[in-house]
Amino acid sequence: MQPDRRTVLAGGMALVATPAPGRAGSRDYAAAADYSAQRRGISFLVQQGDRIVFEDYPGRETGRAHELASGTKSFCGILAAAMVQDGLLTLDEACADTLSEWRDDPVKRTATIRSLLSLSSGVGGGSPGRPDTYAASVAQPFAGAPGVFRYGPAPFQVFGEIVRRKLAARGRPDDVLAFMDERLFRPAGVTHGSWRRQAGQATLPSGAHFDARNWARFGAFVQGGCRIQGRAIVDPAALADCFRPSPANPGYGLTWWLLRPGLVPPSRRSPIDSSAGALAGLPTVRMAAGAGDQRLYLIPDHDLVVVRQATGILARRRGGGTDWSDADFLRLVLAGVR
Questions:
Q1: Was domain 6-275+285-335 assigned CATH 3.40.710.10?
Q2: Which of 25, 126, 267, 307 could form a disulfide with 153 if both were Cys (CB 3.0 to 4.6 A apart)?
Q3: What global pTM score does this model have?
Q4: Per-residue pLDDT tens for 16-64?
């Protein structure tokens, strides 16, 4: 019989827990762990401040990287905030300032970095599982008029091309992932697994692989203001804009979901909760979310970071059903907070 792979960390000491219901030291988050495990969950981690207080890996080894699917998208907002601090861009500059081929198009030239990353620029289209290359995304026609929330991979690939060109214009290597590693991940002490590439560049709407601890570490870095030794390494105002509702979607900022009433979900089949009734009573929750119910939750009121990873990414991309509820899961997590 294989040993149960559930571990609980308390006071900096890792404890091997016994199988449910007698998991040593795990009572506070047992209900949330069971909820996740019963819905294809393979990783569940709770971090408060800089301390991991609970981990659960049913049937899986600790430290194994897993695909984030669209959870990858939320890195782009933090990257943009870092580039604002570096003087590489402003959120309200026209995308056409960098994408010269957009300058003569009366619609495309209205798009800004802010509208692009809030998914309200008019850019849309592309397959969630197979996004176009950066160049192909830039070349495609807009999906519609600006000011409407359109969820999809194309805006993130367009942003990737903007990043690439801005780096090249400064005489720097134009590998976007290498820049993210240098500018964000290594300073934050975060490592990742593989990352899908197309035409030599990392796909920014999907394709990143992280284990639960490193995804949580990145979440804590963001929730702490992206500070290293007390110094912010991204622009604070641009970081705050990542979590400010956009006019086109009260539940979306710049590449981050905001669990609040009025949220416009990515599709009609999406399990992301959007009704006032479902979300009633929850504190402020910021979220990176991917197919298969991959989740990184930031809960600043409790200085809490929660990671949940699961199988079933392909099923969700094909329109498969789910009984996952962010609100139900978070209420179980919050019931365990001391």
A1: yes
A2: 126
A3: 0.91
A4: 333 333 232 357 899 999 999 999 999 999 999 999 999 999 987 788 9
